[in-house]
Amino acid sequence: MKAYLLLSVIIIIMNELLLLMIAILSIKPGGFTDKALDINDNQQLLSIVNTLKPDIIQLAGNVDQFIPLNYKSQVVAGIIYLVSIKIGESKYLKVKILEPLPFQAQAPSILECTNSAFPNLEID
User: Any idea which fold 29-116 has?
Assistant: First the structure.
C-alpha cells in the first residue's frame, strides 16, 4: 500500500512538473511551437547544443563555423528541440535533440541531423 501511495505521489508531481514546463516554455503538447525562438534566450538549450557539438560536427562533416541560431520545441516524453545551426556560408543544419524528462536521468541526445540551404525551421 505504501509503494502504491508513493508511486501515485510521484506521478502527480511529474505531471505537475510537465505542466509547469509547458507553461514556462509556452509550448503546446504534441506539436512544435509556432514560431522559431532565438536560442540565445534559452541558456539551458544552448548548453545542451554546445555539449552535443562534437557529435553534431561529426554527423555534419565539413563545418566552417558553428553558430546556433534559433529553435522550436515540442513536448513529448521530454522535449524535442529542432535547432537551426549555421555551419558555413549559406549552409545550415537542422538538428533534432531530445531532452528526456528529469526523472528519466538520461542525457540529451541527437535524433536527427540534416543539411539545409536555409536557416528556417519548417518541419519536413
Answer: Nuclear Transport Factor 2; Chain: A, (3.10.450)
Q: Where are the beta strands (DSSP E) in the chain?
A: 37-38, 67-76, 78-88, 91-100, 109-116
Strand-pairing partners, residue 114, are: 94
pLDDT in tens, 34-71: 778 888 889 999 999 999 999 999 999 888 999 999 99
105 is written with which cell numbers? Answer: 536521468
Angstrom CA distances, 84 to 3, 19, 71, 103, stand at 44, 26, 6, 28
SS3 content of the chain, % helix, strand, coil (to 5): 40, 35, 25
Least confident of 7-16, 26-35, 39-48, 110-119: 26-35
* Contact present, 113 and 93 (Cβ < 8 Å): yes
Task: Specify the 3-state DSSP secondary structure of 52.
Answer: helix
| C-alpha torsion angle, residues 100, 111, 56, 120 (rounded to 10) | -100
